[in-house]
UniProtKB/TrEMBL annotation, chain A:
Protein name in UniProt: 2-oxoglutarate oxidoreductase subunit KorB
Top-level division of the source organism's lineage: Archaea
Keyword line: Iron, Iron-sulfur, Magnesium, Metal-binding, Oxidoreductase, Thiamine pyrophosphate
EC number: 1.2.-.-
GO biological process: cellular respiration; organic acid metabolic process; sulfur compound biosynthetic process
Keyword Magnesium: yes
Coiled-coil annotated spans: none
Classification lineage: Archaea, Methanobacteriati, Methanobacteriota, Stenosarchaea group, Methanomicrobia
InterPro entries per UniProt: 2-oxoacid:Fd_oxidoreductase, OFOB, PFO_beta_C, THDP-binding, TPP_enzyme_TPP-bd
Amino acid sequence: MTPAQPAGRPAGDLVSPAENTWCPGCGNFSIEHMMKSAIAELSEEEGIPIENFVLLGGIGCHGKLVDYLNVNSFYGIHGRSVPAATGIRLANPDLKVICHVGDGDIYAEGLDHLLFAAKRNSDITVVVHDNRVYGLTTGQYTPTSPTGFRGRSTPGGITEHPLNPLEVMLAAGATHIARGYTRKVQHLKGLFKEAIMHRGFSLIDVLQICATYFNLTDYYNEHAYEMKEGETSRFESALGKIREWDYDREAPIPLGTFYSVDKPIYEEKFRALTADRPDRRALVRKVIEEWR
Amino acid sequence: MAEYSILIGGKAGEGINTAGLSIAGLFSRLGYRTYMYFDYPSLIRGGHNFAIIRASEKAIGAHRTPADVLLAFDQNSIENHRESIHGGTTVVHDASQVVRGEGYGLPLDAIVKEEKAPPITKNSAMLGALARVAGVGRDVLEDVLRESVPAKHLEANLRVAGRGYDAVEGVFTVEPLDGPALPVLTGNEVAGLGLVHGGLDSYVAYPMTPTSSLLHFLANRAEDLSIRVIHPENEISVIMMALGLAYAGERAAVGTAGGGFCLMTEGLSLAGMSEIPVTIVVGQRPGPSTGIPTYTAQTDLHFVLNAGQGEFPRLVVAPGDLAETYSWSATALALSWKYQVPSIILTDKTLAEGACSFDLGAVAMHPDRKPEIWDGTGEYRRYARTKSGVSPLTFPGRAGTIVKANSYAHDEAGFTTEAAGEVTALQEKMLRKGESLKEELSTYPTVRTYGARDAGRTIVCWGSEKWACIEAAEEFGARVVQPLVLAPFPARAWKEAMIGAGNVVCVENNATGQLARLLRQQGFDPGRSVLKYDGRPFAVDELAARLKEVIA
């Protein structure tokens, strides 16, 4: 037998040879590099083999991230990463399943799946690249664009208010809710590691700069602040903190973990059924022989 | 030849389906082959439900119109079925409901009141009456009830059944046969068992008639079969969960009807491109749109053949009875994994919810096929371009290996590419899998024939119309030819089967002749179409009359 390889791997090895096509200054770079570091560090610190991480990508600029990392990936379709992630976690409980999704991708196209994954406390992590604009389809409003946003499909400006996705997630039953910002990379990496290690459904809404279509760097730099670490297990206080900024009004923008509680994990209730692999053909024969 | 038809009717919520299955169980116990057609509107209470149970010495899979016994819980059950009543029909009715009754009237309200039994036991009174009319011993009746009624309700059911038995007289005698007492299963139940035989780990579905009962059956039997059964928020989630399961190494199947399949088509195309296996049971019902939800049709053939954007190979099978449903469900799953293509099992309400005697021992199974698993040499490439087009599989979690699945055009490692050469090579690799699948299928019974080759007249049909056609064909001395595989179309087997076909008629449960269209696309003459599109399957006698117009 060959000696066991150490589970960790230098973060640099995780970058794939795929050509990077994000715009210069794109917030996705921060997310990519912090996710890469988070995986490398968790592998080292927690002894999780690199091959046990699975990344899912939706469709949008964010999705390219899964091509750029040498990690297992399921580069799927628009808005549908979350149920695929649940399927992957169901099949193999050892896997750390991380969905990279966009704000248009998951808050518009795939919101139903997000709500239900939170409701059932599926043991997956959802990282929303929330640049509050469609980038790859060149500049339309998304569910988190502020009132008045002028996009290519709404040149007169939108009259509706944005969703506060964190409030939606709290109401749906998410057991771990956080917000990060692509200009606070070390903080972001910490949020990633914490969410990945959370047992149950975790969501991080990452305020991400879109250098080309919606550059809010100055706005975020001015308003964003890191919350002090404290109590995160109370629904009411989490709700209050989540409502401090509604993605619309000018207000301080808290960053960090709002809510984190332990609840039974959806996938675990199925484990007993398929724990061992019995001869199912014999089981079929038995069902038919004892038919009533 | 001994054969019997029993019609039982009443309002929804009165347990007509269960009563019908008990009647089938009674004949099964006597060694007969049974078939049950169940007809019900889309509502929970009221309306008119009926079941036609046919029992025969030989294997059957269709109903006939004339009834030997009609069991009526209400006036509609007599009035709506005048065409089934003839001189030899014995009518037994609930005298508490039926005003203009004929035959034997059973005061069911009074009987259940006197026996202090719940209203649902009225079904047992009818079963008791049927047993007596058919000359079946009280011991057999009681055995059937013991096998089908939960213990805590058994005594009440036995008492009420006895009252029904005593209230009528013997009219004819069903002689017991030497045959085995076969279990009576629905197409959905057999599809589920076939999938498990084929290696199923997880079944994922959102309820939709006519495949809801497949979800219910597997959910109820999940522990017995050691499988996982999941009901997510919608059909999009259903197919995505299945693809996630399969990407991580578990064999998953999903079930739906046309409307739910509409929602799955983007996931179907993803399965095609990412080469993730998935098996989809599509139970047809009449559309367009909501249509007539609880009735039957063969209207989604071209939909399943063509669904999903882009060009990718798929396997589409259309079983015609329980034995074919069992073997082809297993095979659809296994071949989906061997060739990493989506497979579709196309059923309809008639097959999915109809019940029939099932003889597992007589099912001709196809050879076992296993997926190609990566041998671990060199660096793993998920989409390695091989001669067969099939890239060996491995799954996330394998040490030192990265598995990249992709919905974009991709290179061999799974990275997105838009390069012309790569895109061409990828498309050709996918199509090679289709050719390999077609080659493999050349050794399977993809086209079945019944009757003599020199008949000079041939009835072509597919799916659940198989048995009505076989029986009707016997009256004309015609041959029947049935394709089991619709994609990739077994052109060589079809050509061989149709040698000397003579006068050809194509029987289908749709308005436009969908199999006929497929045959023309493949360069074959489908003959004249005999179509029915009222949501009901052909009765044997009805089909024979229609055929007489075109081939007699």
